[in-house]
Structures are given as C-alpha cells and as structure tokens.
Amino acid sequence: MAKGFVPNIKQLPKFMKEDPGILQGHRACAGCGCAIILRQIMMARRKPIVIANATGCMEVVTTIFPYTAWRTPWIHVAFENAAAVAAGIDAGRNKLQRAGRFSGDKDISVDYDVVALAGDGGTYDIGLQALSGALERWHNFMYVLYDNEAYMNTGIQRSGGTPFGAWTTTTPVGKKIKGKPLTKKPIVDIVVAHRIPYAATVSPAYWVDALKKFRKGFETEGPAFIHAYGVCPRGWRTDTKDTIKLSKLAVETCFFPLYEVINSEWYLTGPSLTIAKNPDRKKPVEEYLKLQGRFRHMMLPENKWMVEKFQELVDENWEIILKRAKNV
Amino acid sequence: MQKVVKQRMMALNGDEAVAWAVKQSDVDVVSAYPITPQTIIVERISDFVHEGEVDLEFIKVESEHSALSACVGAAAAGARAFTATAANGLQLMFEILYITASLRMPVVMAVVNRAPSGPINIHCDHNDSMGARDAGWIQIYCEDAQEAYDSTIQAFKISEDPEVLLPTMVTLDGFLISHTLQNVSLLPEEVVHEFLGTRKVQRIKVPEIFGDKEVPLMLNPKYPLTFGPLDLFDYYFEHKRQQIEAMERAYKVIERVHKEYAEISGRSYGNGFIEPYKTDDADVVVVGLGSTMGTAKAVVDELRGEGKKVGSIRIRVFRPFPRELLRKVLSEFDAVGVLDRGISFGHFGQVYSDLCAALYGAKDAPMMIDFVYGLGGRDMPQKLLKKIFEEVLEAKVKGPEPVFRIRGVR
Ligand SMILES: Cc1ncc(C[n+]2csc(CCOP(=O)(O)OP(=O)(O)O)c2C)c(N)n1
Ligand code: SF4
Ligand SMILES: [Mg+2]
Questions:
Q1: Which terminus of chain B faces fewer neighbouring Cβ atoms within 10 Å, N or C?
Q2: Closest alpha carbon to B369 in B387, B141, B139, B273
Q3: Which residues are near ligand 1 (CB < 6 Å)?
Q4: Contact A57/A69 with Cβ under 8 angstroms?
Q5: Which atom number of ligand 1 is nearest to the Cα of residue A148?
Q6: What domains are defined for chain A?
Q7: Is the pLDDT of residue A2 over 50?
Q8: Which ligand 1 atom is at minimum distance from the Cα of A54?
C-alpha cells in the first residue's frame, strides 16, 4: 500500500502510480464510462478499501481466472447481494478490530473502508432488497451504483434504470412498441427514504466533484450511497470518443443532475448548481439523445413525440430536485 | 489420552443446544433470518448478545439469501461465521450454498429440517437439506439435542481445517429435536475455546503477484487477493476437482475431530460417520438418518426380545458419504431396509439411491428396500417402525420386491 492517502489533488498522479488499486489491461470496452468510475473511486481513498462487487460488467471485465485487474482486496459472490456481502465484511471487520484478532500479525490489516459495487440491474432490480436491508441496518459502507442503464453483461436488456424510449434487446423498437415505454425508477429517492447520512450523484466528466463525493462517502459514519453515471458505448450504441461528452451532456441537459443529499437535505453541486442559478444554460435533451443509437428511432419525424415526452420527464425530475435543493 | 472434563447439565431443546454451541465457539459473526422451527436459535443467540454474554456481531438480515451472503463476506474477511435456517430459507439460499462451498468459506450452518413448501408445512422431513446435498457442503445429521450441540462445535473445526476449507451443515429434525427438551451436557466455555481456538486464516502462495511469500487467504489490504473471479472452461473444472478432493480429505478430518472431541467430552457417535446398534450378529438392519434412529433402537430392543436378529445403523455424515464404510458394513447383512424421510420425485429416496450407488457391484451386497416415510412431519411411531423391520425380515425369505415402499401414508 502507498505511504499516504491522497491529501490533495496535486498528489494524485503519484498516489495512483504507487497504488492504483485497479490496473489497466482489463477487458472493458473502449470508451467504457464505468471503468473510469472505478479509477475515480480509487483516487478518493482515504485508506485501503475492500470491494464487494455484484455480478455484471465490472466484475466480468476486471477478472477472468487466472487474471485480475484488482490490486485491492475484492470479492464477487453473486448478482443480487453486493450489499449483503459488504454487510458481512463490515461486521467481520468490526469484530476483528474490536477483538484485536490479527493485531500481532504484520501480514494482516483489518483497517479499511468497505465498498459495495453494483450495476443498475444489481441495484434497481434484483439487489434492491439486500441494499434496503443493509441501509436499514446502518452498515458502515459505501454503495456505488454504476448506472449504465441496462443489463449490459447479458447483452443489453432493459432494467429499472433504463430511461424512457431506449432501445434494448428486451425493449426493441417494433411496429407497435418502440423502445422502453416507462422511465427510470427514482433510485436515489428510494435510498434517501432510508434517511441515510449521505447520498450523491456523480458523473465521471466532473471528476473533482466525483472525487469529493466518493471521499465524503468514505468518511461517512454509516451507510453512504453514490449513484454514478456510466456511459456504455457498446449498449448505448455511442461513439467511444463521445463518452466524456455524453457524461457532460447528461448533466448539462439536467437528465442526470449532480447533487448530494446530506442527512436528507438536498444540495445541488457543480454544473447543476450553476444551471439552477442560470436556467438558460440548461440544454435541450435532444442534444444528448441524438448522439446515441439507442434513441435513434426517436429522431424520426413520426416519433418526435418521444423526444418531447423525454424532455417532459427530464423537466419534471429537475423541478422536483430544484424544489428540494437547499442551496438554490 | 486426555481426561474427560467435568460438564454442566442443562435442560435444553435442540435449538437452544445449537445456540449454546455457537455462544461457546468464539463465533465472530452470526447472520440469520428467523423461520420455524429454527427460530429459537436466533432468539437465544439474540438473548446472549443483548445480555452481553457473548461478543459477536449478529446481522439481523432481511432474508436468508442475504444471511448466507453476509456469512460469505464475513468469512472472507477472516471471521468465523454461522447461520441457521430451515426449508424455505435454505431454498432461498440455494444459489449462495454453491458459492460458499466454491469460495471455500468455512461457514457453519444449522439446518433445522422442515418439509419444503408446498403446501406450506412447518414439520420435519429431510427434503430441504437433501435438496442441498450436491451443493458442496459437509452434512452431519444429528439424532438428538446433545449431538446437535456436539456436532456444531465439531463443525467449525472440520470446516476450518486447512485440508478441508468447506462449509458444514449440521441438521436436526424440526420439532422432534429442535423443540423437545433434553438433558444436554455442556462443556466449560474455556474447554471449547481451547478445542477450537479462534478462526485461523490459511496461507497460500500467489507467485505471480507475491513471489515466495505465503499470504493470508482473506480480504486483506496488506496482500490484496481477488475472490470469485469469472472462471470459464479453461479453469473451472480444475477448481471443481479441488472441491472434490477436499471432500475426500474431509473423511480423515471428520474422524479425527470426532475422536479428539470424544476424548474431552466422553461422547462419541459410532465412529463419527455411522452409528451401528446391535448389528454384530444381525441378519437384517434398518438404515436411516436423524431422530427416527433413536426410535429404531427401541424397536431393535423389542424385536431382540422376541428373538429376532435385527439391528440398526444410523448414518451421521451424509456428505461426504461414507461409501466405502457402508459398502463394507452393509455387505454383512442379508437384507437392509432404508428409511428415507425424503424423496426425489420420479426416483427413490435420497439415502436409498446413494446406498445403491455405494453398494454397486459389492460381492455380498444385501437386498435393499426403500421405505419412504414421515413427509411433512408424519409421525413414525414405534409400531410402524416395527412393521417395517418385519417387512425386511420377510423380504429375507420372499425377496425384496417391491423395493420402493411408502409407509405411514393414507
Ligand atoms: C440470479 C441471477 N440472475 C441473472 C443473472 C444473469 N446476469 C448476470 S449479470 C446480469 C445483468 C447485470 O446488469 P447490471 O447490474 O446493470 O450490470 P452491467 O452488466 O450492466 O454492468 C444478469 C441479468 C445472474 N448472474 N444471476
Ligand atoms: S458493455 Fe458497456 S459497461 Fe460493459 S464494459 Fe462494455 S462499455 Fe463498459
Ligand atoms: Mg447495467
């Protein structure tokens, strides 16, 4: 492990060189936004971390026996239980620390932060119960949802996190039904309803904002939840060079506002706060949609209503967040 | 040989006996979800924790799936982890059962046998744990509360042995054992501590990353390891082979732990694998699992009184299946009645089919008849069991057909 953990951003390159936590050479697709999130989690560490990873793209692309991209203790058990596995690690760590069990063993440390890492499928859908239980029990861990808005690992099927209109292999664009008829589950609302001390959204394009939030997540006593926006060029049918552009547009159009929820109080951050104060800077969501193959059908004249509907959904959500935000 | 230690006698039911074993076994993390007839276990452990009588983390999870998942997390973190469940709960864990074994996590679980739904039922049969027999767990079936206590303590030692590193299921019959009071001898806590020690962590070599260094096999920032990677056709099979071999090595460890435990407690259960009763000169025997085999002893006595040469054999360890031993032992008899409190629909009871496989091709193999009984907690009174013995005696003369018989059913 590196000598010190990132006290300021200037030392980051050195820190990440000495102790990357995750290495390059994994098998994520070119332009994968989710892989960037993994690095940003590593950049924000205050001490070593242990990761419980749900089944999904990030699990699969970072490991295949006998290879691993991880230089941090990491465990994958199943798809729906990242939060439960993290809960067990938290409990084990607490007991071992309290008992001083390995204090005489210089090869072992039980001083670390616990991270649960899961995709949208592993969070909105199949993992929601385990997540809710772990939040209610107030485990000391940070749950990171990397949201690529579909089941990518199994080949792009819709999830509770897939947005309205999006093409997936289970919401195909047919003559009768075009893409997903419904919209995203308000996952942060659900999480915040547990009245946990810290929740936030991050987009990898705004990396300083993201690092600060991950860091706060680590520092939180009790459960913290980070909803990270993760472009998936493969599943979204986007150009690999557009990943950061899309990560910006998602925020600039207010499709994916950046905020934090501290003890149930909402605060906009970064560009989202700027837009809240200067509403004319909010870009039309079409700019975001038109770069993505999964929304291509919505660009046809006869489907114009879908873009309008999408815009309405974005506006509605943005209004709700504006009303909640304490700092606007 | 060590001296048998002085013990305290307490009136406990089977669930409480298990809870006491957990209390005394230096368990670090318990993660469990209530289900009849296991509930008393989680209630008693909660009492111990809330009264400050034991220092363990009790994660009161929201489901059995999470219960076992959290045990896996805790065990990977280097903790000793325990859970308990029954029927539907065990079935909800199904996915994680396999993963626990595959990750080689020495988790111990009490399964209080209950008939699986549907229809929903709360009473004993063995179809729940039998459904999990292929998951890679060691399975010990207990006859009474005392054995449930003893076996739970032994289970930690067996599972954590570096030669084994497999999870263990200790099963006890729902209500018949879990809810009936018995005088149970408890070892002094310090004796259990000395017997088990705290959870040790195995060391392994990962030459590609850590060279010659032997590193602790746990989630540990000093030597970060990856647990549970994707593993396809090029390595998966070798990992399964390791599991197969660990199960084979477990025979020796189970035997040794049973013997060491007998030395301090004065209690043993046959040779640890099977418990024969009055079989020396027997012509026919009845073989089975769990509390029914206590009843069988009484029936054997009764029939012996009538001059019939009968005996009984209780199988205690069902996985790894003591196949060599049973092949040898059962070949001594003319006819064997197999008691199955479970059924593989479309086939035989599980004990019967495993025994047939174990005895395949044996020169002096006995005739064997399967008696499926007791599903959903249907009683097995002495009278019925006696009739089954008589059927086996009759088969000795008339032949075994039909080999599949259902008894105690309307
Ligand atoms: C219990 C169970 N059901 C289904 C699957 C198949 N499966 C594996 S990953 C996955 C989708 C993962 O989606 P998500 O959580 O969004 O992660 P992503 O792959 O998109 O990163 C599915 C359906 C599984 N592994 N386990
Ligand atoms: S499919 Fe998508 S999420 Fe998965 S590795 Fe490729 S780009 Fe990343
Ligand atoms: Mg996904």
A1: C
A2: B387
A3: A 55-58, 79-80, 118-122, 148, 151-154, 159
A4: no
A5: 20
A6: 12-324 (3.40.50.970)
A7: no
A8: 15
Using the Cα atoms of residue B275, residue B278, residue B281 and residue B284 in order, give the sign of their dihedral. Answer: negative
Q: Could you give the 3-state DSSP secondary structure of residue B221?
A: coil
Q: Which amino acid is at A253?
A: T
Give the residue from A327, A148, A115 showing the smallest Cα distance to A232.
A148
Which residues in chain A are closer than 8 Å to B57, comparing Cβ atoms?
91-92, 94-95
User: Phi, psi at residue B37, to the nearest 5°?
Assistant: -95, 25
* Nearest partner of B25 among B147, B190, B169, B259, judged by Cα: B190
- Give A297's contacts (C-beta < 8 A, 6+ positions apart): A165, A167, A173, A178, A179, A303, A306
Beta-carbon contacts of B351 under 8 Å, excluding residues fewer than 6 positions away, are B287, B288, B289, B315, B318, B338, B339, B340, B342
**Helix residue ranges per DSSP H, B225-349:** 236-265, 292-305, 323-330
* CATH for the stretch B8-200+248-265: 3.40.50.970
Rounded-to-integer distance, Cα B152 and Cα A6, Å: 46
Please report the pLDDT score of residue A6 as a whole number: 55
* Residue % of chain A over a pLDDT of 70: 98
Q: Burial-class residue A282 by CB neighbours within 10 Å (0-12, 13-18, 19+).
A: middle
Residues contacting ligand 2 via CB (< 6 Å):
A 28-29, 32, 34, 57, 61, 148, 152, 232-235
Separation between Cα atoms, residue A144 and residue A229, nearest integer Å? 10
* Residue located nearest, by CA, to atom 5 of ligand 2: A28
Domain with CATH 3.40.50.970 in chain B: 8-200+248-265
DSSP A124: I
Please say whether the beta carbons of B36 and B122 come within 8 A: yes
Quickly name the fold that domain B274-406 has: Rossmann fold (3.40.50)
> Which residues line ion ligand 3, judged by CB < 5 Å?
A 119-120, 148, 152
Tens of pLDDT, residues B162-182:
999 999 999 999 999 999 999
DSSP letter, residue B89: H
Residues of chain B with CATH 3.40.50.920: 274-406
Residue B308: CB atoms within 10 Å: 15
pLDDT of residue A9: 81
pLDDT at site A7: 57
A114: β partners = A50
Please name the residue of chain A whose CA is at the shortest distance from the CA of residue B69: A85
Task: Flag whether the ipTM exceeds 0.85.
Answer: yes
User: In which element (H, E) is residue B23 found?
Assistant: helix B14-24
pLDDT digit string (tens) for B110-148? 999 999 999 999 999 999 999 999 999 999 999 999 999
